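Feature request, filed as a ticket because there's no other form

It would be nice if the structure record came with a short human-readable summary line next to the tokens. Right now we just get the raw output. Example of a typical job, pasted below so the devs can see what we mean:
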Amino acid sequence: MINRKEIKHALPHGKLSEIAKEAGVSKPSVSIWFAGKINSERIEKAAVKIYVQHKKERNKLKKELQSVENL
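Raw output as currently delivered:
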């Protein structure tokens, strides 16, 4: 299983705000969660959801780039 630090480092700038919005919490709460100082199932679910979406988007872009390079 991926840990909080790995998720945080894999996400681009601005995704913490998206996680906060998805979880219905403040950005500082998300930062505190990533620091391991609190546990929150809502933040965890939102973080994993955003992380998975981001990974899918990156993989799609990589495939598109590879197809363009192969022209």
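Something like this underneath would help us a lot:
The mean pLDDT is 92.
The chain has four helices and no strands.
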